[in-house]
Amino acid sequence: MKVLVSAFQCAPGYGGEIGNGWMWSTSLADHGHQVTVLTHPEFKDRVLAGGRPDIDFHFIEAYEIPVKLPGGIEGYDEYRRWQNKAYEFAVGLRRTWDVTHHTGWGSLHLGSRLWRLPQPLVYGPIGGGQTAPSNYRSYFGREWPVEKARSVATGSLLKLNGWTKETLRNSSVVLVTNSATEAACRALGARDIRYFLADGLSQEYIGAARQRPAGVPVILWVGRMLARKAPELAVQAFAELRKTTQARLVMAGDGPFLPRVAATVKRLGLDRDVELLGRIPWPKLAEFYDTSSLFLFCSLRDSSSAQFLEALGKGLPAVTLDLHGIGDVKVGLAAEKVPLPQRPEELPADLAAAMRTVLTADDWAARSAAAIEFASENTFPTKAAAVTQIYQEVAAR
C-alpha cells in the first residue's frame, strides 16, 4: 500500500520518539509498503546516512516566530507549527496515498493536522490521558504547579482542545497506549479505539534468556531526570533495599532533577553505592541492560516506557509501579508490579521489598525468559504486520 507517515522526530540509533519514527518508517517499508515520510530536518544527516533510498523522506522546517517562549511551551508550539507546514507540504505533493499514519509525536493533547487529507488516518499509538497522583506531589517539588495544570488540561479542559477533538473525530482508527488515554479518547468522540503498545524493538535487539549475574546485584534506572520520572523515589527505594541487601544502583540519564537526586544520594549516605552516569548514548545502554540484575521503573506519570521494553528485550527482569501504561500490560513473571499505597511514605519500602524478591528468589532465570517472551511479541516487524491489517481495513471502508 502507499502509506504517508508523519514522524516529527526520526533517526536511526536513538530510543524513544526519535527511534520510533525511524523504526515505523523502515519496518513499514520492509513489510512491502511504499512509504513517504514527513519529518523535521533536525536529524536529516543521520536519516540520509541510514541507507534507505527505498523510503521517500521529506524534511520540513517549521516557520519561525519572533517571540521567544518558555522552554517546554516553545517546543510544543514549534511542533504545532510544523504540523501545519507538514499538512501544506502533503497537499502540495499532489499525490494519492491509501492511508495516512501519524506515528509521532504520540500525544493526545497535540493532535494531527493530517486528518484534513482525503485518505483515512490512523492516529497513534498515543498516550497522554494519564495524570500523576496528587498525593505524590512531593516528588515533583517546584514542578508540581505545572504538573497540576497539565492534569487540569487532561481532565475538565480537554473538551476545549480543538486540535484533539478534530483529530479524534476524524481518525479512522485511534491507537492508544493505556486505558486512561482510551477513556479520554472515547469521551471526546473517537469512533474506533484500539490498544497498541507505543514502543517496539528491532528483531536484532532481542537478546537471550540468561541466568542471574554473579557478584553484587546491580539495580539499573534509565530515563530523563524529570519530576514525573521520580528519580528521587528510586534512590529512596534503593536506600530501603540496602538496609538488608548488598547492592548497587546505577542511574543513567540527565535532566533538571539531577542535582536534587545527587543531593538525596549524599543525604542518605549512599555515595559509594549509587553511580550517576548522566546521559548515555542509546546504543551504549544495551551494555548496562546486559550486565545488570534488575531494572527499576518508578515513573509517576508515563504513557508506557521504551526503557522498560528495552530492558526486557535483554532478558532483564523489572520492578515497576502498577500504574498507567505499564500497569495495563500483562508481562507475567517479567516484572514485579507494586501498587501505589495511599501513604506515599510507604512506597520506598514496598519497592524495596519487590526488588528483594526478584534478586533473591530462585526464579530469576524464569523471569528473564518471560522478559524475552514479552519483548519478542513487541518488535517492529510484528507491529508493522499488525498495523498493515488495520490499513487494509480502513482503506476498504
Topology (SSEs and partners):
Elements: E1 2-7, H1 16-30, E2 34-39, H2 44-49, E3 56-59, H3 71-93, E4 99-104, E5 121-126, H4 144-154, H5 162-170, E6 173-176, H6 179-187, E7 193-195, E8 218-222, H7 231-242, E9 248-252, H8 258-267, E10 274-278, H9 282-291, E11 294-297, H10 306-313, E12 318-321, H11 324-328, E13 335-338, H12 347-360, H13 364-376, H14 380-396
Parallel strand pairs: 1-2, 1-4, 2-3, 4-5, 5-6, 6-7, 8-9, 8-11, 9-10, 11-12, 12-13
Helix pairs in contact: 1-14, 7-8, 7-12, 10-13
With strands numbered from the N-terminus, the spatial order across the biggest sheet is 3-2-1-4-5-6-7
Helix residue percentage: 40-55%
The SSE string, one letter per element, is EHEHEHEEHHEHEEHEHEHEHEHEHHH
Residues in β-strands, percent: 15-25%
Unreliable residue stretches: none
- Which structural class best describes the helix and strand composition? alpha/beta
| Biggest β-sheet description | 7 strands, parallel
- Helix count equals 14
Separation of the first and last Cα atoms: 15 Å
Gyration radius (Cα, Å) is 21 Å
Describe the structure.
The chain is about 40% helix and about 15% strand. The chain is built from 14 helices and 13 strands. Strands 3-2-1-4-5-6-7 form a 7-stranded parallel sheet, with helices on both faces. It has a 6-stranded parallel sheet with strand order 10-9-8-11-12-13, sandwiched between helices. β12, α11 and β13 form a beta-alpha-beta unit. α1 crosses α14, α7 crosses α12 and α10 packs across α13. The two termini are about 15 Å apart.
